[in-house]
Structure formats: C-alpha cells, structure tokens
Design a protein that fits this description.
266 residues, mainly alpha, MetI-like fold
C-alpha cells in the first residue's frame, strides 16, 4: 500500500493552491456579473436579462455557433486527410509539404489581413459568416495538421494495412479504420480550435462590421464606450458566452488529455 507522506501532502497542497488560483478569476467574473448598477450594492440577476436583450445575444450565439461548428468541422476533416499521407509516406515530398504546413504556424496572420479583406470584398462575402468560416479554416489547418501528424506517426500502421488486405480502398480504410482511432487527438483539435474561433474578436469585427450578424465578443463590445461602460452587463454577457464552450470542454476533457499525450509521444 502507498503510504501518505509529507511529499504527498505537499503535492496536494500545491494542487489545491493552483485550483484556488484558477478559481479566483471565475469568482470575480461571477460576482461582478451579479453586481447592481449605480450605487446599488445588492446582487441581482437582472444583468443577465439586460445583456441578453440589449446585446441581442440570442442571434450572436447562433452566429458564433454556426461559424464555430462549420469551421471546426472543416478543419478536422481537411487536416486529418492531409496529415494521413504526410505521416505514412516516407518520400521526400511529404517532408517538404509538412514543412510548408509548418510555415503557416510561423507567419502571423496579421500580415494577410488586408489582402484577405480585399479578397472577401471582391467575392462579395463581407458581412457574411461564410467569410469567417473560410478564414478560420485556412488559419487553423496548419496547427491541426501538426497535431494529427504527430499522433498518426505514433499509431501502429498495421490497422489500416489489415483493412487494405481485406479489400478496403485507401479512402475507406482511412474513414472506417484510421479516423475512429484518432478520436483522442480529434477531441484536442476540436476543443482548441473551437475556443479560438469562439473567442476571436478582431476577425468578426472586420468581416461582419455594419451588419446585424455579430459574434458574441463583438456583440458584448457594444457595452464598452468611450465615456460610459456598463461592466456588470459585460461580465454577465461573458458568463453567457463562455457557458457553451465550457460545457463542450468538460464533456471532452478526457479525450483532450489523451490527444495531447498521444501527440507528445509522436
């Protein structure tokens, strides 16, 4: 039996302190979201209703959800299909293409903001959430390819080889055998990309400016002005905005940890 030692007690104390450090900002967020406006110090839930109505959070949540789901789905499919031949092929071109994908991680996307904006304008996609889906798909694919490639290199190729011997084509072997085995890293890719897309502020502000279709961060920005800022409603809106992502993360956190572990092994 493992004995409870001073070292174990020290580790538990350190973890408790770390948990409190992470929980403190959440406590501040919730307390400020319940604070009354003006000189009224009492706690109230009215801020949530006011934030929902005045920021039109219902429509903003739908827009954010549409952009996030479509972007993440495209990133998962395209990145997984691109990473599979990169991880399995030993030819020189696979290393060159992989390095080309990694170049997308090094270059800051701000360098392409103006050309991309002009391209979306020429395509007539400004003010359309589809523009955000295209932008996020291209932006997040290199990072996702990196994660998938590392996981696939650590995965035994005997599974798909057995499927090929049984008569499966390469595409069917990928979708029927390989893709289900990549569920841990897929959970990681989904969570990391969903958090980034959901919380991004600059890109929706540029591409959806002047329209009624706004994402949650841009909708909440309307409460912050040069002279007056309604902070209780801002924090109430933040609580509403982070709730969907938090629920998804808690549901998939086990796969996220498995995905990171598998990618590090690769």
């Amino acid at each position: 039996m493992n004995r409870y030692t001073w070292r174990t007690a020290g580790l538990e104390a350190a973890m408790i302190l770390a948990a409190l450090a992470f929980a403190f900002p959440v406590y501040i967020l919730l307390s400020l979201s319940l604070r009354g406006t003006g000189d009224d110090p009492s706690l109230t839930f009215a801020n949530y209703g006011d934030a929902w109505q005045q920021a039109n959070l219902g429509s903003a949540l739908l827009t954010s959800g549409f952009v996030t789901v479509c972007s993440v789905a495209l990133v998962v499919v395209l990145s997984a299909m691109a990473a599979y031949p990169l991880a399995r092929s030993t030819r020189a071109w696979s290393k060159a293409v992989f390095l080309l994908f990694m170049l997308g991680l090094l270059l800051p996307f701000q360098l392409a903001l103006i050309p991309l904006y002009q391209t979306m304008r020429d395509l007539g996609l400004l003010g359309n959430p589809i523009a955000l889906v295209i932008f996020y798909t291209g932006l997040q694919t290199p990072f996702s390819v990196f994660l998938y490639t590392g996981f696939l290199r650590a995965l035994d190729p005997g599974y798909e080889e057995a499927a090929l011997i049984d008569g499966c084509g390469p595409l069917r072997a990928f979708f029927s055998v390989v893709l289900p085995l990549m569920r841990p890293i897929t959970g990681t890719v989904v969570i990391l990309n969903a958090i980034f897309v959901w919380n991004d502020f600059l890109t929706p502000l540029l591409y959806l400016s002047g329209t009624e279709q706004q994402t949650v961060p841009v909708a909440l920005f309307g409460f912050v002005g040069q002279y007056v800022s309604r902070w209780p409603m801002v924090f109430a809106g933040l609580v509403i905005g982070i709730a969907p992502v938090l629920v998804v993360y808690l549901a998939m956190q086990k796969r996220v940890i498995q995905g990171f572990a598998g990618g590090l092994k690769g």
